[in-house]
Specification:
Layout (H helix, E strand, L loop, with lengths): L3 E6 L4 E7 L1 E6 L2 E6 L5 E4 L2 E8 L2 E8 L1 E6 L2 E6 L2 E3 L5 H13 L5 H23 L2
Parallel strand pairs: 1-9
Antiparallel strand pairs: 1-2, 3-4, 3-6, 5-8, 6-7, 7-10, 8-9
Helix pairs in contact: 1-2
Length: about 130
């Protein structure tokens, strides 16, 4: 199968650099599939599971915010936060979700932060379930 270059870059490190056959990217407004020959695009990233299909199998990452660019048969993800799926801990993610759910109140000032924490915890659990 044809491949394309893919890079995941955070402010502190280059997390992934390699060739992939397919990428499922958590865009701000929904999942986005990227394959070889994709038309150029620039999109904002949301919080969610990033799946990279390589010749060795699927690799999973948790991504939270940033931008994705497809240009010249390459996908570049510039993200504020990314973590490999194998480094995520189920009990830690469940505890984060429980803590965020416990903070749900009628107070609108904290509502956006609570919802962001819930999205991240749900995304962690999705990556953990998907990696097997």
């Amino acid at each position: 199968m044809a491949t394309f270059r893919c890079s995941i870059v955070t402010p502190s490190e280059s997390l992934y650099e390699g060739h992939v056959e397919y990428a499922s990217v958590p865009a701000y407004d929904g999942q986005l599939g990227v394959m070889t020959g994709q038309s150029p695009l620039l999109t904002r990233l949301g919080t969610g599971a990033l799946r990279l299909d390589t010749s060795e199998g699927a690799r999973w990452y948790l991504v939270d915010g940033g931008f994705a660019q497809v240009q010249d048969n390459a996908l570049t993800l510039l993200t504020e936060f990314a973590k490999p799926g194998e480094s995520l801990d189920r009990s830690e993610a469940e505890a984060e979700l429980a803590e965020a759910n416990a903070r749900v109140t009628g107070d609108e000032a904290d509502q956006a932060r609570v919802e962001a924490d819930q999205r991240r915890a749900y995304a962690k659990l999705e990556v953990i379930r998907s990696r097997g």
